[in-house]
Amino acid sequence: MNIALLANPTAGKGRKAGLLPEVVARLRAGGHTVDVVTAGSRDAMVDLGRQAVADGRAVVAMGGDGTVHLGLQAVAGTGAPFGIVPAGTGNDFAVRLGLPGDTLAAAEAIAAHTRTTSIDLAKVSGGGTTAWFGAVMAAGFDAFVNERANRMRWPRGPQRYNLAIVAELLALRSRRYQMRIDEVESEFDSVLVAIGNTESYGGGFRIVPGADPTDGLLDVVVAEPLSRRTLMRLRPKVFKGTHVEDPRVSTFRARRIELAAEGVTAYADGERICPLPVTIECVPGALNLIG
Ligand SMILES: Nc1ncnc2c1ncn2[C@@H]1O[C@H](COP(=O)(O)OP(=O)(O)OP(=O)(O)O)[C@@H](O)[C@H]1O
């Protein structure tokens, strides 16, 4: 393969950045041509990824879910082979796809690859933009946490998220949502709405347990209005995915979802998408995954 390696040296707090030369060496050892692509902005990264696809190259993203998300914008629906070298903090998408979690092992697996697999992706449209995502779109409490953490300048790293969680818990209130799942319309109050192509985000939070990226469907999790205390009690259950057994949590499966609410911004793969309303569709086989 002729590989464009989209590398985000800041992923995973930069701890894996030093492995970049070794990742390149292992990919080359498989007989592939490798160009490292770095960019000063997300948009530039996507543009370079698209250019690589136009040039007929395979794209490999080295970073976490955010970097993978950028790579997906370039390769989705094109048939271009896409590989993931996990180097982020969470790497939820790669882990859920059963890819090697270790950075160098993943590079070796890509180098030695003998096949690609078709994986579904989700396509979200709203506010005049369209984006692809691989893992989970948040449109409730978790999206507010993400939005707040993005606005904060201090502290850096996971502490920022912990502080954002506390602040959003203090500000917790339900919102009124309008949702159309395939042909069924509903209106409800909720504190949390998440839509998954795969199960988890945030380093193993299985918020949408059972989401299968090969079934042609997206999974939806909706929580009723909950008190802070109940939300905090449910939180540890999310690691096992058992929060959906709670009667206040509902799950659905659908090919297409329309979701609207006032004052809610959607986040997907941890990246800001746009304020609701949005339409989310499952696009079967949109990703040609190496591995
Ligand atoms: N070239 C770039 N310029 C600016 N930002 C980038 C670039 N490449 C990636 N990013 C952004 O950097 C952020 C962090 O990257 P990423 O999500 O890959 O790492 P992480 O947060 O450590 O991992 P994870 O999301 O798996 O926990 C993301 O928001 C991603 O979109």
Automatic annotation (TrEMBL):
Native organism: Dactylosporangium siamense
Gene3D superfamilies membership: 2.60.200.40, Probable inorganic polyphosphate/atp-NAD kinase, domain 1
Keyword Ion transport included in the entry's annotation: no
Family: Belongs to the diacylglycerol/lipid kinase family.
GO BP field: phospholipid biosynthetic process
NCBIfam families tied to this protein: PRK11914.1 (NF008882), YegS/Rv2252/BmrU family lipid kinase (TIGR00147)
Cofactor or coenzyme needed: Mg(2+)
Protein name from the UniProt record: DAGKc domain-containing protein
Gene Ontology, cellular component aspect: plasma membrane
SUPFAM superfamilies (UniProt xref): NAD kinase/diacylglycerol kinase-like
UniProt superkingdom: Bacteria
Sequence ranges assigned to domain DAGKc in this UniProt record: 1-128
Pfam families attached to this UniProt entry: DAGK_cat (PF00781), YegS_C (PF19279)
Keywords, sorted A to Z: ATP-binding, Kinase, Lipid biosynthesis, Lipid metabolism, Magnesium, Metal-binding, Nucleotide-binding, Phospholipid biosynthesis, Phospholipid metabolism, Transferase
Molecular-function GO term, any one: ATP-dependent diacylglycerol kinase activity
